[in-house]
Specification:
Structural class: alpha/beta
Order of helices and strands: EHEHHEEHEHEEEEHHEHE
CATH topology: Carbamate kinase
CATH superfamily: Acetylglutamate kinase-like
Helix content: 25-40%
Shape: globular
CATH class: Alpha Beta
Strand content: 15-25%
Largest sheet: 9 strands, mixed
Distance between the termini: 31 Å
CATH architecture: 3-Layer(aba) Sandwich
Number of helices: 8
Number of strands: 11
Radius of gyration: 17 Å
């Protein structure tokens, strides 16, 4: 069996991966496809935690444009992430994977409250930990939550799954001449204004020297290849 390059990783998933082709809501087939990739990766012996966004259920930008309070919109987004956490957890457990869900906003009927030492202990016991509700605070994105949780659990790398195979100097879906980067420094990514992660999350990674890999979640072995250390995406590091 191939050897994983990393012992402990945090995977950041967009809520869009839960929606499938519809782009909205939860598609059980799409959820199972994501779960299967996670199952394959865990078979390598890696310890893994996951942070999921909630954009497939709620996007606050439209509500903000109509005058909704920013904090209210952000809290609604946090609750949406918990729905995705529950869907992914259910799919994984049907595949025989032992999981634990933790949320930054207490919802004891459906998940444990986030406790750093407990999360680390779950990982040490071989359980997959899924974090929901972002940081528990408005004005912070799930990208920032992913960077924060990755550092708190001492992950060796933050893996950000996207729909493109890395970081480009322009949108590759609109510009066929867009240049793909194999490696970037944190400062380069910040100064160039590249859509890697939001600036708060990227600054957290930089300040704490946490490597970031941006990669495409297709084909179905992409997550395994990323954990094996294959150059399938863009590495952002010191």
């Amino acid at each position: 069996m191939a050897t994983a390059k990393y012992k402990r990783v945090l995977l950041k998933l967009s809520g869009d991966f839960m929606a499938g082709e519809s782009g909205f809501g939860i598609d059980p087939v799409a959820v199972d496809e994501v779960a299967d990739q996670v199952k394959q990766a865990l078979a390598l012996g890696v310890e893994m935690a996951v942070v999921i966004g909630g954009g497939n259920i709620w996007r606050g930008s439209g509500a903000l444009a109509r005058g909704m309070d920013r904090a209210t919109a952000d809290y609604m987004g946090m609750v949406a992430t918990v729905i995705n956490v529950m869907a992914l957890q259910d799919s994984l457990e049907r595949m025989g994977i032992i999981t634990r869900a933790q949320t930054a906003i207490e919802m004891r009927q459906v998940a444990e409250p986030y406790i750093r030492r407990r999360a680390i202990r779950h990982l040490e016991k071989g359980r997959l930990v899924i974090f929901g509700a972002g940081t528990g605070n408005p004005y912070f994105t799930t990208d920032t939550a992913a960077a924060l949780r990755a550092m708190e659990i001492n992950a060796e790398i933050l893996l950000k799954a996207t729909k493109v195979d890395g970081v480009y100097d322009d949108d590759p879906l609109k510009n066929s001449a867009a240049k793909r980067f194999e490696r970037l420094s944190y400062i380069e990514a910040l100064n160039m204004g590249l859509k890697v992660m939001d600036s708060t999350a990227l600054s957290l990674c930089m300040d704490n020297n946490l490597p970031l890999m941006v990669f495409k979640l297709t084909p179905p072995d992409s997550l395994v290849r990323a954990i094996l250390g294959e150059p399938i995406g863009t590495i952002v590091c010191k």
